Amino acid sequence: MKKLQSTVSKKNGLKHQSGFTLIEVLVGITILTIGLLGVAKMQISAIQGNSMSSSTSVALALAQEKMEELMTRAYTDAILLDSNTGNDAPATNLMPITSTTDFDHDETVTTDAQGTFHRIWNIADHPLSGEDVPTMKSITIIVTWDNGKHQVSLFCLKR
Questions:
Q1: Are 121 and 139 in contact (CB under 8 A)?
Q2: Is 65 exposed, middle or buried (0-12, 13-18, 19+ CB in 10 A)?
Q3: Phi–psi pair at 157, nearest 5 degrees
Q4: Rounded to an integer, what distance in angstroms lies between the CA atom of residue 68 and that of residue 90?
Q5: Residue 90 per-residue DSSP state
Q6: Interval 21-51: pLDDT, tens
């Protein structure tokens, strides 16, 4: 077995000194700090993404809830009268309405965890091609939140 050499000399004090210099320690701490800041930024982004996903899920649930309520009603139900005319007069096109100024029905919905959502919807009558009597209703529902910065929409045809 070999004998280990000591780093301390009895006559001269320290013979050889090993370890990290102050510069090496500072560089290491700087690299570690940059890495931890990157992880913290990633964590903040994940939290924001989860919050947005949660709000979108709530908004879609609110839109779906209203759509199901309207779709289960009879075609001739008074609530399903054309929002634009108040009767069954045909609408001019079958495209979903996207401007919030075109909606006649609206309500504000407050949830416990996610805050306040604004739900608007419109109902329009449409004849099938070649027919004079409306045989379909289009229902468009838009739910907005965060002061209108975000929105989801649903569009459906009812026969």
A1: yes
A2: middle
A3: -110, 135
A4: 23
A5: B
A6: 999 999 999 999 999 999 999 999 999 999 9
Q: What DSSP letter does each residue of 97-156 carry, written as one string?
A: P--GGG--EEEEEEETTTEEEEEEEEEEEEPPTT-SS--EEEEEEEEEETTTTEEEEEEE
pLDDT digits (tens, 9 = 90+) for 79-127: 877 555 444 444 444 444 445 555 667 778 777 677 889 999 888 887 6
Q: Tokens representing 115?
A: 């805050």
**Burial call 33-58: b when 16+ CB within 10 Å, e when fewer:** eeeeeeeeeeeeeeeeeeeeeebbeb
Q: Is the pTM of this model over 0.85?
A: no
> What end-to-end distance do the CA atoms of the chain give, in Å?
95
| CA–CA distance, 93 with 134 (Å, rounded to integer) | 12
Strands in 136-145's sheet, in edge-to-edge order, are 105-111, 115-126, 136-145, 150-158
What type of residue is 131?
Answer: E
